[in-house]
Design goal:
Length: about 120
């Protein structure tokens, strides 16, 4: 819950210094005059992208062939899910897989969802 409040903090229209002070219980503050809100440079964060349909996006046969060819780096479902989500590991780096066309193809999807797909299909 606290992690989800971070984007809201940066998108607010109130002085960041004052907001932080209020969060920690100091309510006798004024605007700082120097943060991006006070200087008129408000932040607009990109909205999270919608997850894609893994069943139509991923070809299980292609993924299985990739895993077979790179068993040491992608042999476990968690390793494969990390690869598909675009997370490197020492093994994928050694195997030079970060330049593979499927590396990070699932980056818009939650890791637990990709992991579940990997456990089911590979």
């Amino acid at each position: 819950e606290r992690l989800h409040s971070i984007p809201a903090f940066f998108e607010n229209q109130h002085c960041y210094t004052d907001a932080l002070a209020n969060y920690f219980g100091d309510t006798d503050n004024q605007t700082c005059g120097t943060c991006s809100v006070c200087t008129g440079q408000t932040v607009l964060l990109p909205k999270p992208s919608l997850e894609t349909n893994l069943e139509t996006m991923l070809d299980a046969r292609e993924i299985k062939a990739l895993v077979k060819a790179n068993a040491e780096a992608l042999g476990e479902a968690r390793q494969l899910a990390r690869f598909l989500c675009g997370m490197t590991s020492p093994k994928t780096t050694r195997a030079k897989l970060s330049s593979h066309m499927l590396f990070g193809v699932c980056e818009r999807n939650s890791f637990p969802r990709v992991l579940a797909w990997c456990e089911q299909h590979v």
